[in-house]
Amino acid sequence: MKVKDKVCVVTGAAGGIGEAVARRYAREGAKGVVVADMDAGRLAKVASEIGGLAVAGDIGTEAEVQRLISEAEKKFGPVDVFFSNAGIGRGGHEDATDKDWADSWPKMLARGEGYLINTASAAGLLASMGSAPYGVTKAAGVALAEHLSIQYGDKGIRVSVLCPQAVDTNMLRMAGATAASVDGVINTDAVAQTVIEAMEAETFLILPHPEVAEYMTRKNDRDRWLRGMRRLRDKSGEGQRKRS
Fold it and tell me: Has 138 been annotated as catalytic?
């Protein structure tokens, strides 16, 4: 799918990956870009600069998600692309929601066309040493995306899941150096470029850090993989932070 002439909704768009992707969608010629976030002031600035629509609110609630979709349709028409990117900080970690898909994809299914993208993490494919809830929920997000792709992929619903390692965002700066930074920190514009390329190719896994694909092959030997992760845990200091 190409973004040109499509109606795109991006949550968590007041900064970081969401803002970069929303700006890129606008440059690619989207019919309309709807940005959502809790930071109303910053969100309004982003929307104004890209000629989009700002819908401020907590998309962690069902009512706000329904309002978001309603406002998007009222302004631009049926939603073609829903990028579920919103995240919140909890104990130095982020927890991206998945349930906000539920109010957008049935209408796409009825039209026989639509694109769902969820920001998860490479931790959902590999492991998370600093937080069990983080890694487990990210893995669940990947599994949900797989389920939707299997169930509805032949009915016009494209599904992708974004799984970066370290990205230069406020969340990473708050968390400090982590094992996720081992392959370097990339900027949000680089992530947005990867998203555009993946959408055009309709690739399920969006991997801004190409090293992740290699790590996934190594994980086939689980015992060796787990030993290596323990060494990385000790080298990165994640184990010490957990025990302190």
Answer: yes
Given the residues 138, 155, 215, 242, the one annotated as active site: 138
What would you measure as the largest C-alpha separation in the chain, in angstroms? 53
- Extended beta strands in 58-113, E state: 81-84, 89-90, 93-94
Per-residue pLDDT reduced to its tens digit, 40-94: 999 999 999 999 999 999 887 778 888 999 999 999 999 999 999 986 544 333 4
Cα(38)–Cα(48) distance, integer angstroms:
16
Q: Which long-range contacts (CB under 8 A, 24 or more apart) does 35-38 make?
A: 35/10, 36/9, 36/10, 36/11, 36/12, 36/68, 36/86, 37/11, 37/12, 37/13, 37/86, 38/14
The pTM of this model reads: 0.86
Decide if 134 is catalytic.
Answer: yes
Dig out the tokens for 238 from the structure: 């994640």
Identify the active-site residue in 6, 25, 115, 134. Answer: 134
**pLDDT tens per residue, range 99-149:** 555 656 668 888 999 999 999 999 999 988 777 888 898 999 899 999 999
